[in-house]
Design goal:
about 0% strand; 4 helices; mainly alpha
């Protein structure tokens, strides 16, 4: 596999720019509303989601050897959708829980 195989994966598409802006927004809100400790944790968690959105083809190739009979292939679109679910769904869940429990 040459370096040219991944060249097309690093283009800045509108989807990737929106994902990056959302990560910057969530990290900024975590830092301003909570503290540096929580901002670092939010950053690490959302960097995983950002990687799933930016590099789904690479992450889809990671194989799991824990399950017998499973070949370990995942469609890149599934990886991308999981990344978006984390990036958009988790802050929404946090917001709803904060309203329910008044924290």
């Amino acid at each position: 596999m040459s370096d040219g195989d991944y060249e097309s994966d690093f283009k800045a598409t509108p989807e990737r720019i929106v994902a990056l802006l959302l990560v910057v927004l969530w990290v900024t809100l975590a830092f301003s509303q909570l503290a540096l400790f929580w901002a670092v944790r939010v950053t690490l968690m959302f960097l995983l989601a950002l990687g799933m959105i930016w590099l789904p083809a690479i992450l889809a190739r990671i194989r799991s050897r824990d399950f017998e009979g499973y070949d370990g292939t995942i469609a890149p679109n599934v990886v991308r959708w999981v990344g978006w679910a984390i990036l958009v769904g988790l802050p929404l869940v946090w917001f709803l829980f904060s309203r329910v429990f008044h924290t």
